[in-house]
Amino acid sequence: MSKKIGFVGLGTMGFPMAVNLKKAGFDVIGYDAFPAVYPKAEEAGITMVKTLKEVAERADEAVISMVRDYAQNVDILFSEDGLLAAQPKNKTIIVMSTLDPDTMNALSKKVEEESDLRLIDAAVSGGASGAEAGTLSIMTSGDEATVKSFQPYFDAVGSNTFYYGKDVGNSQAAKLVNNLILGINMNAVAEGMKLGNHYDLPQEELLNLLKVSTGDSWVVRNWGDVSEWTAETALAVLQKDLIAAYNQGIKHDIPMPFNALSSTQLFNSMEEEKPEA
Fold this sequence. Notes:
By secondary structure, the chain is α/β, with parallel strands linked by helices. 52% of the residues lie in helices and 16% in strands. The chain has 14 helices and eight strands. It has an eight-stranded mixed β-sheet with strand order 3-2-1-4-5-6-7-8, sandwiched between helices. The protein starts with a strand and ends in an 8-residue tail after the last helix. The active site is at 175.
């Protein structure tokens, strides 16, 4: 009998991740706040339930959270009809949402103090395309034995898993480092493309040059997709991470001037209007 894994949050990233878990042979028990996703998920073989309590009851050993932020994680766990309504014991919440080190630690402490659940952190990188292909990079932290025991789940949704120690929140710090570098690099490539455009350089030929030269990067190799990121989706999420990295730098007295510049220039460099607050 295949293991039953709970999955909460079947959005742009969560849905393909849940599908890949199903393809890997797991019985996925899914829940999402938006009913519109249910028919598509059920067609993909995911067992969708109507309440979070059912997710906690039916999952064998773990529930993956792929909701947006700290507030939503608190809600799915501690609300009146949340996961804790099932009074689960000896199960683990695998938080794959992007938070930040401080809020991740706060969530872990709250779970530890108010429930019989364990919590580990497993932030992901790779975007929607990586989620669909099952090639996400997964950054983990928490109790090492617990993290290692869930490697089959990570293998189903990603191609690389990294462990950053027992302190929950460390994986969020690792993701901030990655996205800080991504944001700086995106600004650099966008500016380079603008200069090339001024001289009417064929963009595809310029990208071909960068791919085999010292200007190469993941952004260059995926510029066709990256250049289409919008202020309403990926760019807004990235800016949130750049601001979180900046705040961590302020808190711990770590100067990061390029990150600060990137967070203010991101929408200008990508020629996208900043979304309203």
